[in-house]
Write a structure and sequence with these properties.
By secondary structure, the chain is mostly helical. It has a single domain, classed as Orthogonal Bundle (Arc Repressor Mutant, subunit A). The protein contains 5 helices and 3 strands. Helix 2 packs across helix 5 and helix 3 crosses helix 4.
Length: about 130
């Protein structure tokens, strides 16, 4: 049975405040999680997501994948479900974007472009670490 926390934001139903959006995107792991989910079709298994994130973080070891998995379940997924942008199925250990995540899509695109575009000094710009 899926476990989804209600959107704890005050204001309009389904609306995310700028503060909430910035808070969600302020952490590199949450940003990459949302980017990965936005490209996925359907639900993504937490272990698969952790594997993807560990590879992106440059430390693709079993121990690091396990640490990423733990931080996802205990830190990042609760923040994303509280904001109402993802649904977490604890029985299946899967994560899926909800329609409310549409508000963060332009920022995900911007962050992806920022990561790929060269800076004026010739080096690539990096997202928050």
């Amino acid at each position: 049975m899926p476990t989804t926390e209600p959107n704890s934001n005050p204001g309009r139903e389904g609306a995310l405040s700028t503060t909430t959006v910035c808070g969600l995107l302020s952490n590199e792991r949450r940003l990459r999680t949302l980017q990965h989910l936005s490209r996925a079709v359907g639900a993504v298994a937490i272990p698969d997501l952790a594997d993807h994130l560990a590879l992106a973080e440059g430390e693709h070891t079993r121990e690091h994948v396990e640490r990423v998995c733990t931080s996802l379940v205990h830190v990042h997924v609760p923040k994303l479900t509280d904001a109402g942008v993802v649904e977490y199925d604890s029985d299946e250990e899967t994560l899926q974007l909800l329609p409310a995540a549409d508000v963060v899509a332009p920022y995900l695109d911007l962050a992806a472009r920022e990561t790929r575009s060269p800076r004026s000094d010739g080096s690539k710009s990096k997202s928050r670490s």
